[in-house]
Design a protein that fits this description.
Number of strands of chain B: 21
Distance between the termini of chain B: 33 Å
Radius of gyration of chain A: 19 Å
Radius of gyration of chain B: 20 Å
Order of helices and strands of chain B: HEEEEEEEEEEEEEEEEEEEEEHH
InterPro entries (chain B): Fe-S_cluster_assembly_SufBD (IPR055346), SUF_FeS_clus_asmbl_SufBD_core (IPR000825), SUF_FeS_clus_asmbl_SufBD_sf (IPR037284)
Shape of chain B: globular
Shape of chain A: globular
Largest sheet of chain A: 6 strands, mixed
Largest sheet of chain B: 11 strands, mixed
Helix content of chain A: 25-40%
Number of helices of chain B: 3
GO biological process, one term (chain B): iron-sulfur cluster assembly
Structural class of chain A: alpha/beta
Oligomer: heterodimer
Family (chain B): Belongs to the iron-sulfur cluster assembly SufBD family.
Largest interface: A-B, 25 and 23 residues
Number of helices of chain A: 9
Strand content of chain A: 15-25%
Helix content of chain B: 10-25%
């Protein structure tokens, strides 16, 4: 349904001098197929390429090589809005803050309608944001949690075939994470939304049918959570304690 | 009385479909086109004959005054001095604004000087919209001045908008704010082509617990330029805030100079200013909801100037 074929993403190395330009490979020859209606969690250490992978699917970053096939069509070169129209929608980890634009504006764009009843119906379906949010400005005055709830609602309002959420629980209080997981499961179940969540949170990893563990820009493991437990536990223990010790050189070598 | 151009201009500047209800004074090409007074709002020509005096009785509530200006005569540069006296405890809306319709090669201009004497406890919403229309090549010039003198516990909200067609604009806003009074100014200006706009603001917080909040939103397209200056001076325990944001598109240029002066130890003043292109994350968000690049830019600008 959504097929990543040997995708590679390279960026120019920023800290090398101009005399010898070189590239850094963030995603390395990665292949994977997301099946329609599945719930996937992408996890892995910081800097492993999880967010980059999600952004490549949305077209926020363009792949250097390889192909992305969505429902039989090659979308590798499509701009963001055309991928969105094809049914892929993205919830940002750090959502944009605007000046003047309200939640109602964003929700109307996503829903393709500014009909009050329809917007209220979407908010009720999402559940995590109150109706009072509707005329809130999506600006720097919103708390981290509020803006994430708004972000979530705008993705769902678009009725995506594929919903990608980058760390949806950032800034969300403990009491909302459970309902948020339930919401994504419900959307998966009732609307057959293929759901891809980039997360470290156990609640999302447990909710997923398939877990992708990204390491150094490659898939280190894909399968169910049970199979990943030993790898996750292994990588949660730092083996570089000796190198890190002492205040002089407190750099992380992981 | 109103021809098609007049109607179009009135719709743009005052959202009027025809002659307004309540008190009004319509000025066209330097002359009186129509006037109506109400039981509580009197309008009369001033002694020098170069403007009007709008006298609002104390305690007048939920009334509005429309004073639009239409300019459609080539080569005319009209200057007008209007004085508003808003009585104690009144709560009114004043809709001003000037629309230029330029059909020829000669320039047309309007300089409106509006002085407000706001008495104790009065509340005023002042909405001023400037626009220039027409196919002519003459320069369209608008130089508005507002002078606001506020007694105690008054509130003035000013919405000053110029969204297109004006080639040259020099705005000057001056305000003296009394004890417990609040002044809110929101200025929205969009320029394009070779247009230039300048706004100078001298705001003085004079009385104890006076407040001022000055917001400026600028969109600068084409080769246009906008300069925004505000001097906020505190003479008492008070609160003042300036917020100026400019979005630059194409080759637009902008200067934003907010200045705070505290001449009292209990003055509390802040400002924030930003100049830049439309933020990439905003564009990404709207494009991820299905808008193409141009539509996303438009929505962001619309929201910004709303």
């Amino acid at each position: 349904m959504l097929e990543l074929k040997n995708i590679t993403y390279r960026v120019p190395e920023s800290d090398t001098d101009a005399q010898s330009p070189s590239d850094r490979t963030i995603i390395h020859d990665l292949s994977f197929t997301f099946e329609a209606g599945g719930f996937y969690a992408i996890t892995g250490p910081n800097g492993s390429g999880k967010t980059t992978l999600a952004k490549l699917i949305m077209g926020i970053n363009e792949i250097t090589s390889g192909k992305i096939i969505f429902n039989g069509s090659d979308i590798s070169k499509l701009p963001i809005h055309e991928r969105s129209k094809a049914g892929i929608v993205y919830g940002f980890q750090h959502p944009a803050r605007f000046k003047g634009t309200t939640f109602r504006d964003l929700l109307s764009i996503a829903a393709g309608s500014d009909d009050e009843e329809k917007l209220i119906e979407i908010i009720s379906r999402v559940g995590v944001c109150s109706l009072a949010f509707l005329d809130k400005r999506v600006d720097s005055k919103l708390s981290g949690g509020e803006i994430k709830k708004i972000e979530l609602a705008t993705v769902i309002a678009k009725n995506p075939k594929v919903a990608i959420y980058d760390e949806p629980d950032t800034g969300i209080d403990l009491w909302t994470i459970g309902p948020m997981v339930e919401l994504l499961k419900r959307e998966q179940r009732e609307n057959k939304t293929t759901t891809i969540v980039v997360s470290h949170n156990k609640a999302f990893l447990e909710a997923a049918d398939t877990l992708l563990l990204i390491k150094d820009g490659k898939i280190g493991y894909s399968g169910d959570l049970a199979g990943a437990v030993s790898i996750l536990e292994d990588s949660s223990v730092c083996k570089f304690n000796e190198l890190c010790q002492g205040e002089e050189n407190a750099q992380c070598y992981r | 009385m109103l021809n098609a151009i007049d109607r179009r201009v009135l719709k743009e500047v005052a959202e009027l479909e025809g002659i307004p209800k309540g008190a009004y004074n319509i000025r066209k090409n330097g002359k009186l086109l129509g006037r109506e007074v109400s039981a509580n709002i009197n309008i009369e020509t001033n002694e020098k004959g170069d403007g009007i005096i709008i006298d609002i009785k104390p305690g007048t509530v939920n009334e509005s005054v429309h004073i639009p200006v239409i300019l459609s005569q080539a080569g005319l540069h009209d200057t007008v001095y209007n004085t508003f006296i808003v009585g104690e405890g009144a709560d009114v809306t004043i809709i001003a604004g000037c629309g230029i319709h330029c059909g020829g090669k000669e320039s047309e201009g309007h300089s409106g000087i509006h002085e407000f004497q706001i008495k104790a406890g009065a509340k005023v919403k002042y909405v001023e919209k400037h626009i220039a229309l027409g196919d002519g090549t003459g320069r369209r010039i608008l130089n508005p001045t507002t002078k606001v003198f506020m007694a105690e516990n008054a509130q003035v909200e000013m919405e000053l908008t110029q969204l297109g067609g004006v080639d040259e604009a020099k705005r000057f806003n001056e305000a003296k704010i009394g004890a417990g009074s609040v002044l809110l100014i929101t200025e929205r200006v969009m320029t394009d082509g070779e247009q230039v706009a300048e706004s100078r603001n001298e705001i003085e917080l004079i009385g104890t617990d006076s407040k001022a909040n000055i917001v400026s939103r600028s969109v600068i397209k084409g080769n246009s330029s906008q300069d925004f200056y505000v001097n906020l001076t505190a003479f008492a325990k008070c609160y003042g805030h300036i917020e100026c944001d400019a979005i630059i598109m194409d080759n637009g240029r902008n200067q934003t100079i907010p200045a705070l002066r505290a001449l009292h130890p209990d003055a509390e003043m802040t400002h924030e200013a930003s100049i830049g292109k439309i933020a990439n994350d905003q564009l990404m968000k709207l494009m991820s909801l299905g808008l193409d690049y141009d539509a996303a830019v438009n929505r962001i600008i619309q929201g910004f100037l709303k």
